[in-house]
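Data card: per-record layout.
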Amino acid sequence: MEIDQWRREYLQGGLQRGDLADDPITQFRGWLQELVEADISDPSAMCLSTADASGQPSQRIVLLKGFDERGFVFYTNLKSQKAWDITANPKVSLLFPWHFLERQVIVRGKAELLTDAEADDYFRSRPRDSQVAAWASHQSDAIVSRQVLEDKFAEYQQKFDGKEVPRPEFWGGYRVIPHAVEFWQGRASRLHDRFVYRALDGGEWQIERLSP
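The structure for this 212-residue chain is written out next.
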């Protein structure tokens, strides 16, 4: 395995200033639509990076569940490692690794807790087994075996049999409010195209080309 020799050229396209929308949400929506049309698996998967109070970073893949001019939304257990990190340090980063189209999108911003009403609305839309699983899993806690988890799942299935599954108070969501959004398009010879949108006062965005 000569990993240091693994390489390829990025030849699918380029990105010019004239190609960009005036705001990053419109640009993101267009790129996401192209990904959907290409029938790529898990187009909403993103890497969420957080850091705890000591500065130790952590990363994990989560699913984007909504976005608009206010920011990017995801849901999670509010007692998980990511939630503890966000409580200590709400500055986060999102990475969308769309390598199938030789693209990446990086979002830098601040995570804010969603309202109970927003969390309730999304929780009701989840498949029933996913709702039950939210009760059964104390995310990030150590457990002695998988059987413990499956037993808890069965316990809550029985508890809510024939009933609506309520949203646990320890389950909710966050909106990442961006202050910078970078769009990366691979190019030949590692001369990639990079543009970053930086938030200005009044809801405007400044666009800069970055050296690769």
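Known properties of this structure: The chain has five helices and nine strands. The mean pLDDT is 95.

See the next section for split statistics.
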